[in-house]
Each structure stands twice: as C-alpha cells, then as structure tokens.
Amino acid sequence: MYFKSFPYTFYSLDDASTVQVVTNITNRVTLSDEVKTTFSLYDEYDVKDGETPELVANKFYNNSELHWLVLHYNDIIDPRFDWPLDTNNLNRQVAERYTDVNATHHFEDANGNYTNGNAYILSSNTFTNFNVNDAITNNTNNGVGYITQKNSNSNVRITITTGGFKTGDQILKSSNTTNRANITSTVILSGTPVTNFTYEDELNESKRRIKILKAAYIDAVVNDFKKKLGE
C-alpha cells in the first residue's frame, strides 16, 4: 500500500540506452510534527517479541497494509535496524557481531553512564616487562587500558578505557606486542561491567516502545499523506 502511493520516475542502469519506469521511493514524505507529538492523537505500545509492523498494524487497525503508517509515525526508515529483533534474530546478530558475547562491552557507573573501569588482573609471574603507565590491549576480546599500579610481577592494577579484560584473556603491551600475559584472575574495583550481549539486548529493548496513532485519526492522516504525494 505504501509504495503504491508513490509517483513514478525514469531510471536507467546503462547510461540511458534503456530506460525503465519505476516507483520513486526516494520521494520521502513525513508526517507533521504536530501529528506525531500531540499526546491525544496516539497511544504508546511495547512491541512484543516476534511482532512485525504488519502484525502491529493488523492488531490496532485490522489492516496489515497500514504497517507503513506504524513505521512512519515512529520515524522508522529501515525496520531491519530500527525495529526490535525477535529473540532468535537477536541471538544470531550478537553471535555474529562479537567473538565472545560475554566479554565486557563497556563499564557503567551507578547512574548507568559510561565510565572507566578499574581492576586488578593477575597472571603467572608474566608482568615482568610491564610497568606503570604502560598501555595494554586485549588480544582475545575488545579491551584497552593502562597500568596504574604494579604490585608484583603477577599482580597489576589497571584502568580500562575501552571494552574490558576478564579471566582467560591475553593482554599485550601496546608499545611492544611481544610482551604478553595470560590473565588468570580479575578483580573489579570500580565500574560495573556490561557484557556485549547485555549491551545489545538493552539496545534492542529500547526500541520496543512505539507510538500508535489512534484509529479515529487514520483516515485524516492517510488522506493528508496522499495529498503530499500529489494524488
């Protein structure tokens, strides 16, 4: 229904040797801010796991073809990225995106803001060539930091600026990557580690709350949309 309302245009893939008449999907029309922000015109809804824009449109409007209105009303251009994934697709995406879904993505403070993490990391007497202020990199997962205190050749304190470090990871001395150490134990001193999976899951959950234009206003909004397209 959505693209049926769009005007046509001429398009060629071979420098005009052949020309085709196609739907001009670049002619993007938006709903007015007043329609999208006036509280009395819409209800809020949390998209259930597995629900598609078509299912939501059918649930509220008894017409799945009005899925475009659900997307437009929420400024969703590409539902592949802006619509919440179902559980299976979320798990698949996270597994494809990260080497270790349980590795640390970042650290947060008590208010949920990004912050540096601080931790003790232990190894089997392999910090001999590591010193205070040395930058370190996680060679197993994503992690960058620097040494703030050296207690012994098997125990250093670090500040983590990106990602994280956990037991089983290997770290490198950034200035000389031949200097390596395998982490045997980690003690978090400050900052709450957020795993890659938790980060992606929370990001996905943040997309669930959408606005649903009340059914009483559908005809007026659809007619206005068609006028803007020049029908």
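Second entry:
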Amino acid sequence: MNKFIVCDIGKKETYVFVPETNNHHVISKEDFIQLNVPELNGHDIVIEDAHIRAQEDDSLAHSWTINQLRQLRSVADSKGVEILCFPQKVTPKAKKIASIGLREDLLIKSDPNDTESIAFYLQEFPFAYDALKVFDPVEYKTFEQTVSHIYADRDALTEDSNEARNKGYGIGTNPDINYVSKWIKKYITRLAFELDNETREFWKLDLNHKKTALLSGITDYKSESVLKQIYNVINTILDPNTGEPRLRSDINKPPYWKYAKKVYFGLTPYHMHAGVTASNYKYHKRKSGSSCKKSMSFESKNVVKNLDDVREIREAMKESDRHLRDLWRTARKMIVEDGLR
C-alpha cells in the first residue's frame, strides 16, 4: 500500500492528515517549505494541484512565489520526498465517496475534511494514486506555452463540431455537408465490421437479422441517435474542411490515442472540461450506453449507496472508454494508415 500524507496549504498555515494514524496536524507555511512535517518519514506528500501554483504579478489567487515553489522542490529532493499533485476538480467527488464509505460529515467544507476525504479516496482507489502527477514548479507563462497547442487544437475541434451540429450533422437531409459526413456514409459498413461485437453494439451499429449488413437507417445516413455519435469520433481524426487527417498543431502530425484521449475527449482528471466533443461523449454517450445506471449525484433516485456501487460505476466507465478507444483506433487506421478518404 502507498504510504502518503495529505496536505492542504493556506496562506499562513498548512493542514496535514496522516492516514496511517488518523492524526491531524497544523503547521506554519515556513515549516512546510522546509518539510518540517509531523510523521513525514517514509511518506509521499499529496497536495491539491491548485494549491501549489506560482503567484503571478499581483494575483491573490495563489500564495506561493515561483522561488518558494522551487525551494520546496529542492528540499523535497534533498530529503527523498516525492510531492504529488491531486486534481482539485476531483476533490468534490472524493468528499462524496468518503461521506458514503467513512463519515457523512466529511461533506462539510473544511480543510481537515478535505484532506481526510482525499486520503480515503486514494486508499480505496489505488489506480487514482498511481495517476497523480509529480510536482514540478514552473512559472505560469512557461506552463501556458507548453499547453497552448492543446487549447488551440481543442478550440479548432469545438469550432468544427459546433458548425456540424448547427447543420444537424447532415443526418437525414444532406450527408455531403463536409468530408466527415461523406466519409461516414462511404465507410461506415467497413468500419462496423472491423469492430468486435461488443464495441459495435455499444455504438448501436446494428446488423440485419442475417448479420450480413448494417440496418438501412445507418447506411442511408438517417439514424440520428447513432450517426451523430460516430460523427463526433471521426471528426477528431478527419478534418471536415480538407478531407485530410486532423493534425496536432505542435508537431503537424496526426495524433495517437493518448493525445486524443486527453485533449479531445477529456478522459483525464486534469482536463475534465474539454469542449463539445468531450461533453457529447462523457455526459451523453457514455451514460446512455453504460450497463450501470447508478449515479454519483445525491439528487438522483439511483444514487450510489456504498463503495461497491462506486466501483461498479467505475468499471462501467472503463468499459465504455474501451469501446471509444477501439472505435477511434480502428477509424484512425482506416483514415491515416490505410489512406481511406
């Protein structure tokens, strides 16, 4: 099991929670910079990512200067301590899970509750711990330069997606609105038969009773519920304006799944809001196509009741994402490697 402590850094004080002993501590900011942290020996440190970003100009949003962050990293290196960044956007989910599996009062907003909830979440779901990013202090302008292509590519995709949505993706009216819709009409049958049965069923690429062809509503480009989801995937691979593969703006080459997963579909806790395409998949297709109808929303009649329910949701999401990955990789091979345009 991973050995770690969770810290919540304020402007003057740092709250510390040690899962092994269930102890809470409060130390000064200066003590934290020097890592004079109680019960630290042999532990990693987990901190919400938003709390260890450099202050820019006169901003009051963050209390650290870049020099302080570099000093913290230097002290950590000298003491053999690894500092890991927990995505702050996941904290509300961690608090919900902790309130179900540990104590209901952890939903109350407080620094001790936040640290204890994050610790519980990471202990119960070790895969989340393994995915945490290592703390690497950088100035905001430097960070912005390294990710500018991500936002440029996402914005370009969103613009293309919105234009197609305004035209109804051409479904049932004019399938030749652009190169993406033309490609789907031309190659949807071949694409479907390249997929395994489970993936084909997930995307509702249904066959006739003889299992020899797709249903006519799909091949005629008229089935809206099916084709708009297929469109959203193909649109991340094929440029609708040129008919050529969509390119990453930083290297001018077609992306692989690792990039598409993060940038186009937002399947990472560090990029949860990733535009129209990501929303269409995560909040529509993944939910409607999932075998699990339980919900993390406390307002839902199907709200989770225990940690087994949470794990069931997680497994269903992983299965849906596998079907997205398989469809994407298959379509990419056809478009980029096989040259089917």
